[in-house]
Design goal:
- The longest helix is centred in the middle third of the chain and has 25 residues.
- With 200 residues, this protein is of the alpha/beta class.
- It has 10 helices and 5 strands, in the order βαβααααβαβαααβα.
């Protein structure tokens, strides 16, 4: 079973590439979706989070109060590490369960903070980075979310630099100025190349 780590900065088009890989036959494991499930009402992470951060981190419905938690950890590295210490082992265990259920298919782990975490390189065979210029990232995120430029830039500043992501990559798809059809060709070409390499 070939394991691919997929990552990219906000607004790079990583989710679009993930969908294209699924069309080609990959099993997608979305770590963000797993994290959201863990922090729903009755989610496995909610007890430890409430115990550590208090009820101010819990929304009225019992789920994680995401805006409040973002405020807590944004400028507090200790709180960020504490939250990660709760979530990351649970996410890792869920990822392995889903990977085993893929039954031999190529597994793509969609990990937005793959480079930042430092743990994922050893868990995957290859790393695919979806890259775009910072100007393109900014434009895309503002268009889809309605965020201000300052809000998008603040998120980008918390992520690994483009240089760091590219340095960690086995392959880079530069998704800047491509149509969806052109991006699909890039993804398929890489898929075929890695599929042939995986069978040798």
């Amino acid at each position: 079973m070939q394991r691919i780590g997929l990552t990219g900065g906000i607004g790079s088009g990583k989710s679009t590439v993930a969908a294209l890989l699924v069309e080609l036959g990959a099993a997608l494991i979305d770590t963000d979706a797993i994290a959201r499930a863990l922090t729903l009402p009755q989610g496995q992470a909610m007890g430890p989070i409430a115990a550590l951060f208090g009820l101010e981190a819990v929304a009225a419905d019992g789920s994680l109060d995401r805006p409040r938690m973002r405020d807590i950890v944004f400028n507090n590295p200790t709180a960020k590490r504490q939250l990660e210490a709760i979530l990351h082992p649970l996410i890792g265990a869920a990822c392995e369960r889903e990977a085993q259920a893929a039954r031999g298919r190529v597994v793509v782990f969609d990990v937005p903070l793959l480079v930042e975490s430092g743990r994922w390189r050893a868990r995957v065979d290859r790393v695919l980075v979806v890259d775009a210029s910072e100007a393109t990232q900014l434009q895309r995120v503002m268009a889809r979310s309605g965020w201000s430029a300052e809000a998008v830039q603040a998120v980008m500043a918390q992520q690994a630099s483009r240089t760091a992501r590219r340095a960690a990559a086995d392959a880079v798809i530069f998704n800047d100025g491509l149509t969806l059809a052109e991006l699909a060709v890039e993804v398929r070409t890489l898929w075929l190349e890695w599929s042939r390499a995986g069978t040798r």
